[in-house]
Amino acid sequence: HNCPHTRLLADGGEHTAEIHIAGTDRDFFVSVSPLRDKAGKLIGGVYVARDITERKRAEDEIRRLNAELEGRVAERTAQLTAANQELEAFAYSVSHDLRSPLRHMTGFAQLLMKRSEGRPDEKSIHYAGKIVAAAQRMDLLINGLLSFSRTGRAEMQRVECSLRELMLDSIRELEGDTECRDISWNIDELPAVWGDPVLLKLACDNLLANAVKFTRQQPRAEIRIGCREANDEYVFFVRDNGVGFDMGQVDRLFGVFHRLHLQEEFEGTGIGLATVRRIISRHGGKTWAESFPEKGAAFYFSLPKGQVPPWA
To answer: Is beta strand 183-187 parallel, antiparallel or unpaired with respect to 192-195?
Structure first.
C-alpha cells in the first residue's frame, strides 16, 4: 500500500508519497516522520502535505509535448530517409541508364576516327577525338556517381581497423602515379578505430589521391598523415604543401561535383571529397579542411573512440 501512514505504522520509518485526492483535481506530496516517546515507543507521526497540483499539470504537459515532438521527429526522419533512398535509387538508375548510350557514343566516335585515318580531313578526326574525350570524362563522372551512391547504401561492417595500414595500402596503390615524383611521406602512429574497412579505405584513397594530385607542381611534395585525441574521438588529418585553396570556398569543398580548380589544371570529378564526407558521417564523425592558396591544405576527419551504435 502506498499510504505513508500505513507504512509508518508497519515499520516505524519515514515515508513519502504523492497522493491524488479522490473526487478532486488536487495532488499532494505527503511526508510522514515517526513521533516517539522518551522510551522510543512509536506514539504517532508528524505529517506534512504540500500541494503539487500545478507541478503535476506542468509535468503532464511536458510529457505530452515531448511525445508530440518525438512523433514529429520520427515522422520527419522517416520522410527524409525515404527521400534519401529515392534519391540514391534514382542516382544509381540514372548512372546505369546513361552508360549504354555513352558506350555507343564512344564506339561510333572511335570508328569515325579509324575511318578518317590517312585522310586529309583532320578536323573530323579532331572533332571525333573531342567526342571520345568528353565521353570518357562522362564515364568517369558516372563511375564517381555510382561510387558515391554505393557509399550511402552499402551495409556497414563493424570491426577494428588499423588506420595506419589502410593509409599504407592507399599509398602502395598510388605508386603508379608517384613513381617519378619526389614525395616525402610522413606517417604518425595512428590508433585503431572501429568501422567498415572497405569504406574507410575508400576515404583514405580519396584523401591521399588528392594530396598527390595537388602537390604535383611542387619539386618535392610533403604529405603528412597524423592524428590527435579530442575528448571521446580521434581527429585524423592529411596535410600537404600543394596549391591549397581559397578558404572563402571551403563550404563548397565537400559538395558533389564541386571543384575549386579548373579541369585543365587538375583532373577530377568533384566527387572524391563528397564521398569522404559521406563515409565519415556514416561512422559518426565529421570532416573539414583548412588552407591558404599556394601554402598547402589540411583535411581533417574525426572518428569516435570505440563502437558507437547505431550507425547510419
So the answer is: unpaired
The rounded Cα 262 to chain-centroid distance in angstroms is: 27
Residues with Cβ within 8 Å of 28's Cβ and at least 6 positions away in sequence, in order, are 18, 19, 21, 49, 50, 51, 52
178 with 209: CB under 8 angstroms? Answer: no
Tell me what pLDDT residue 307 has: 65
Q: Which three cell numbers stand for residue 177?
A: 602515379
Q: How far is residue 241's CA from residue 89's CA, in Å, rounded to a whole number?
A: 39
- The answer to whether 194 and 306 have CB atoms below 8 angstroms apart is yes
What value does the CA radius of gyration of the chain take, rounded to a whole number of Å?
33
- What pLDDT was estimated at residue 264? 46
How would residue 262 be classed by pLDDT, with cut points 50, 70 and 90? very low
- How far the first Cα of the chain sits from its last, in Å, is 47
pLDDT tens column, 166-208: 999 999 988 887 788 888 899 999 999 998 888 899 899 989 9
* Backbone conformation region of residue 302, classed left if phi is above 0, alpha if psi is from -120 to 50, else beta: beta
Q: Report all structural domains of the chain as residue ranges with CATH numbers, in order of start.
A: 4-51 (no CATH), 83-153 (1.10.287), 159-304 (3.30.565.10)
